[in-house]
Amino acid sequence: MATICNHHVVSCMHGLRERGLPEQQALERAGINPAVIDSGQRVHTDQVARLFKTVQEALNDEFMGFTQNNCKVGLFATMAELVSHCTTLGELLAKAVHFYNLVSSDIPMQLHTEGDNAVLSFTMDQPHLDPEHFMSEFWLVIWHRFPSWYIGEPIRLQETHFTFRSPAHRGELEIMFPSRLHFKSSANRLVFDAQYLNKPLIRSDQELTRFVENAPADVMTIPGSDTTLEAQIERIISTRDPERLVFMSIHQLAKELGLSSQTLHRRLKESATSYQKIKDNMRREVAIQRLTHDKLSVEQVAEIVGFTESRSFSRAFKHWTGLTPRTYCKRES
User: Fold this and answer.
1) 220-235 residue pLDDT tens
2) DSSP letters of 234-265?
3) Would you identify the CATH topology of the domain 228-332?
4) HSE (CB half, 13 Å, CA atoms) of 274?
């Protein structure tokens, strides 16, 4: 899933609202045009990942203001370093659960087996602080995606339990947690085959370092989504030229994918996207990286992402993020 529903974008900023901190500034820093939120549109995962990180840093709280006590930024990295010495998934989960239960009583966790199944469960100590259940859903996401990444394959969930009643965005949860969903349960739970606990951890220390640096972006990616049509198109474009974005025509792209142009159009439409949206997403992400990390000029970045003149690029960038490139860079400096 390359986009995230408006509900999670709005609800993740609850902690900012409770503390009187500006939401618009957080959206702009994440590269999200506030007008998109007002319109109810879905938002690309790269932008939402930056928003989550922005909220965490603004509050110095990896629990994003949804618990009684702050979970200081850096705790996930400390946990990751601790579990890097484990050899199996079962050992990793047991050590991670023990670690978080030691440092915080806000989200008590448990790992146990029931017959042939493993059950990872937790409750919110102060559920009223998470009125839209954002943190409950996000914590479930983390503890499905991070272990899946570490063993190099998606953990197939059999059941996912939620302590709250079925929400309006249930369809989104069905995509996020492909399994039998149960609501109004006594605890939030991930239920999966216990054989996964014996799976070896295959990631290197260098890969783990990159994962942590990129967090929470990678935990928001649904396991297996790198095989989607959109991901295939992004890989094709990214490998054409390492220095700049070079976009082929839709007809050339279809040919490279072994499809007809009509079939490609149809399949992209069925995935609620288009070739233009994919190009815009890639341009925005490369532009933000080159402007803020590489410190290139607006003119240089405009050329890299495929604009013949910087004014056209600046207009497009403002449409994507709500800010001009120069204003965005000032906010980041």
Assistant:
1) 766 555 557 888 898 8
2) HHHHHTT-SSS--PPPHHHHHHHHT--HHHHH
3) Arc Repressor Mutant, subunit A (1.10.10)
4) 3
